[in-house]
Amino acid sequence: MDNRPIGVFDSGIGGLTVLKEIAEQLPGEDVVYFGDTARIPYGSRSKETVIRYFLQSARFLLTKNIKAIVIACNTASAMAMEEAQKEFDIPIIGVIEPGAKAAVAATKNAKIGVIGTKGTINSQSYQKTIRRLLPSAEIIGVACPLFVPIVEEGWENSDVAFMVARHYLLELKEHNIDSIVLGCTHYPALRYTIDKVFDGKVNLINPAYETAKVVKAMLKEKNMLSSKLDDGKHCFYVSDDPESFKRVGGNILKNEIEQIEKVTIEEL
């Protein structure tokens, strides 16, 4: 057994959806979360910049004696996974592969949509992974940049959210997509609104949930599960404005975040 914490990284707040799923599926695990809020968004950054930012963030997490890193950020998973696995000698799990596998398992007509940031969509990471698993798949990727600020304002179930979603997702609806990968950590908060656009006739794939399943299986396979019987502790670190993180993060977790520490990681 291994009682060291799991490290969870995101470019900001959205990765809390992954932490939430880990907490539900692995309630005894301690988690150290780092959100690089000073340098968000990653979705519009170059690959070189995303890799540099992630490696700095991972080095910070390693100072907390973690046993694994979960890259909750879709953009960083798409752009930095290969470099991360070369750089660090601990298990590293991203959100791309689990989400792609779940989409392939869910689709009935091999027509799959992927929605995410511009960086994630342009990287083609989900598209390439889905095609590797299902060569016959027809995949349409759509960038939905306004979804993140909508969620962070707490407007995910508003008329504004519905109108924006209907505009972004029209192409997917016209192509008879039957499964959609929610390829940004913020997007699970919009499940109700997106489902409404499709009249309840689409499979919504939540990579956060799927990733937590993979983390659980990996820890079990490697005999690295925590032996603790009580609920795990969650520690939060950010690179900017803890108060904003508290407000929005509490909304995502449906629970108040009491302690957050601001850290500087640029020199790591």
Overview of the molecule:
The chain has 268 residues and is an alpha/beta fold. It folds into 2 domains: 6-94 and 209-262, 3-Layer(aba) Sandwich (Rossmann fold); 96-207, Rossmann fold (3-Layer(aba) Sandwich), CATH 3.40.50. It has helices spanning 16-25, 47-62, 74-87, 96-106, 118-123, 125-133, 147-152, 159-174, 191-197, 207-221, 242-253; strands spanning 6-10, 31-35, 68-71, 92-94, 111-116, 138-143, 179-183, 203-205, 234-238, 260-262. A 6-stranded parallel β-sheet has the order 4-3-1-2-9-10, with helices on both faces. Strands 6-5-7-8 form a 4-stranded parallel β-sheet, sandwiched between helices. Strand 3 (68-71), helix 3 (74-87) and strand 4 (92-94) form a beta-alpha-beta unit. Helix 8 packs across helix 9 (191-197). The longest helix is centred in the N-terminal third of the chain and has 16 residues, at 47-62. The radius of gyration is 18 Å and the shape is globular. The model has no long low-confidence stretch (mean pLDDT 93).
